[in-house]
Amino acid sequence: MKRLRKSNLLKDVVTSYICMIVFPVMIVLAVAFATAGRWIYRAAADSVQIAQSAVLDQYQEEMRNTALSLSHVVTMEDGALIREAASTDSGEQSAALDRLNTVYQLLAAPKYQLLDIHIYRQDGSAVIPRWSIRYRIEELRETDWYQKALAQPGKVYTCLVNDEYFYRLRASSEAIAVAAIAPRDMPGIECIVLYRRSTIPDTLHDYNKKGKIGHLILIKEDGRSLIEEGGSPIPPQVMADIRSTCQNSCQLSSFGVRYIAARVPETELFLVSAANEQELFGQFHLFSRVSLIAIFCIVLMFIVYFWWYMNQFWTPLHRLSEGMAAVESHHLETRVTSCSQKDMAQMIAGFNSMVGQISRLIEEKEQAEKEKYQEELAALQSRMNPHFLMNTLSTLKFMAISAHFDGMRDMVTALETILDALLSRDGTFHTVAKERSLLDSYIYIMQFRYMESFEVDIQISPEAGACQIPKLLLQPIVENSITHGFDGMEEGLGRIEITGQVKDHLLLLTVWDNGKGMEEENIKSQLSLSPEIEPAQERRRTIGLRNTNRRLKLNYGDDYGVEICSLPGQWTCVTLTLPAIIPPRESR
What we know:
The chain is α+β, with helices and mostly antiparallel strands. It has 16 helices and 16 strands.
């Protein structure tokens, strides 16, 4: 039976709980958190893109309005107003500028975003209805947007500009919406330009100031911000990736920052939102950590409680298991300490009661076996004595006929020794030395009976001779050698060798003969303590060895008894093993 350990039980239960409950719950929660996080991340990214789309829509609407405003000025009175304002005639020019100023006031009135209208002539001069000149013609021709307007005469070109040289009305963080056209039917005019202050900077400032997700930046291809002053707000490598991969929109991550970029249509500008990855998740990370910590604490508390609660069962169960193992090892005096748990206390009480009953039954059985053995031994002695006496008397009769009176005396002496041992009431044990004296008398008689057809050699050490053994222990073994071992031997002299020695606190007595030997099945039958039903004649042949084996086991335990080795047709060796017990000197 495998020993049950409390730690193994606890480990199995806790492991099962973790594997079957904790891990699946954690996996489900992890999948749920990952799905929710991904959804929140995408929702946050979508909100940034929606904000970008609003800014881009505002840009397109602003560029369209700027283009419409310039087209309205140019086409007013079929262009006569522009030609008159650019005329060299002072009267026409003054009247045209007055009317143009009125138009300017109307255009600027809705949102007060219009800054000025400039008419640049072919001769390098400029007509300016309001304020002062913003670009000299030489500087103007160096700008990309002006050259693109000249390259497509009759078509309005719009863009956002932010040049350090350019005069700005309020602050350096403002961008100007520019509309420029090179008219086809006005040979004296090189280009007409309308300057309008863009509302996009205010929109971006408001968005960033409110602390919404990401920081919106309007940048050029070189990475410089069109609105904000200072160094490049975007790392050069990220900007290079945006230029190479962003056709319409793209997303890039670098050092925990998510860059969501959108190209401004028909320009070399990018609208970029730089958002911290943690910011995209908002409070989701904090919520996830708090939830996981709470779940972990709950699981840990449950494990601790489960450990404490189940320990109320496992500790008594462990003691009960150890008690069962002790009983299995034949320690029937074992008793298990009870506990306060009702069910386990009843189980332990039942176990202790069961062990006590088993112990009493075994004691009663052993006592019954001893009594039964004594009865069988008495019956054996009662059967053997008359039989032995009859044979002895027959021998005495023969001796008397032969007139060997000395032999008769010795025979009678030997008979008296045997009868004294059989009939004495001074106990059932004596020393090996006394057993040898009794055995000498028995062998003396049997040699007369069998006409000295066998010889006996006895070698018993002094240490073995002092040991205590049951009476008549060797006589049945020797009798079997004479009556059964030499039975049917026609040639050769029978030989019996008897030895006794003490080894490792054990008394070893052996009886060897050169008789006809025994088969393996016969040996098993001889040593069986619960033999099957045998014929009467066979029982008489095996009762000596079987009783001897039972006597040793009843007196000394199952570790002691008789061992038989035999080679059929050649020899048999019977070994008796029993503890080496030396009785007190006064009882020898």
